[in-house]
Design brief:
The protein has 388 residues and is an alpha+beta fold. It folds into two domains: 248 residues, no CATH class; 73 residues, SH3 type barrels, CATH 2.30.30. It has ten helices and 14 strands.
Amino acid sequence: MRNILISIILISTLAGCASTPAPEEKDKSFVKQTFDNASSVTSALEVEVGSEYSSTFKSIGAGFGSTVDAIESDYGTFYLFRTKTGHAWPMHQHPFYDAAKKSFTASCAGEVSPLTGFEKADRKGLFDPLHYTTEDKLDLMKKHATTHAGKFPYYLKLSYGSMLDREKEQYRDSLNNIGFLFLNEISVTGEEHTWRKEMRQLVKGSQSACYRNGKIHGAVIYFSSYYGVKEGGYNSSTVPKSGSHSFVGLYIPPETANNVAQHAFESRYANVLRQSDKKQRRENKRLARKKALDNHNEYRAAVWSNRFKLDYTPGDKVCSADNKMGYVESANERNVKVWFKGIVRDKESKFFFGNSDSLPDSKFYYRKVDETTWVAKGDIARCDFTSV
């Protein structure tokens, strides 16, 4: 009787578990319903050509059951909504995205293209940098470009090595991608609108920008992210235990988008000037060193030329044409007894007499020798070296 009772309890328990959907499955159903509703709402919107898109974007947010907030940033106002999707990822493939792009395209009255860097948009003929800088400044930026696509210079972008030494403020503008800038750099206040870059995934094909007459005229970005992560770290390969997912829509209006572009060009030009000044200082230093070295070698060459006229006393430092260094022990009118203590390594002959590649007092490597011999006066001349 006892075994039968246990079996009945176990079967009842299993049946109860099977009838209760897992949280993730329940949330997936909610996500699909939410996206279906948002798609229906967005498809039904009537958008006038050239209309201000913020009201349309608010309607799209309402289709997701969310309120669109106006967020203030250093570059101006932008609009954002967030829809929590529980334990399930938002849908990355759904008719909503086509409907959203269609509505944004209708309002553009220009050309809509995937959101990209300003230089790439320029290369496509969508973006004219002369709306944001002068021709002279642009020429200077192009001159300092370190990355090219064919003959096209990426005038806002620095090499990776250059980025490492720059402050964050300049670093973000070198990437010149408005989407990257807003998603990774702008501080969004409030618990409901806070995300970290390692906690979000861009939806492929969901970033669009409008261009009119060579200027960026607004942009839309949709992405999914985690939220509600507890303190104590985040592992990007796992879903946080207390975490959940959300779907985020972001609309950057024309004035704000153009402020970002303006700032990118101003910041890059200021950086180029700093680079130019730093480069000029390096060049001035190089020229000063070259002049000092030329003067040094000229003087030392003259010493070698006058070696037959020199007289020596014990203890004088002398060197040979094959770069031996030593001390005078005694001398007569024609010969000199020298105790050679070292020979310079990996340098051209007459290193001490006009062929030096380093300034006086610079370090050089030598090999120790211990050789005392008589040499002709014409085989040596006075030189300077640290004790060997």
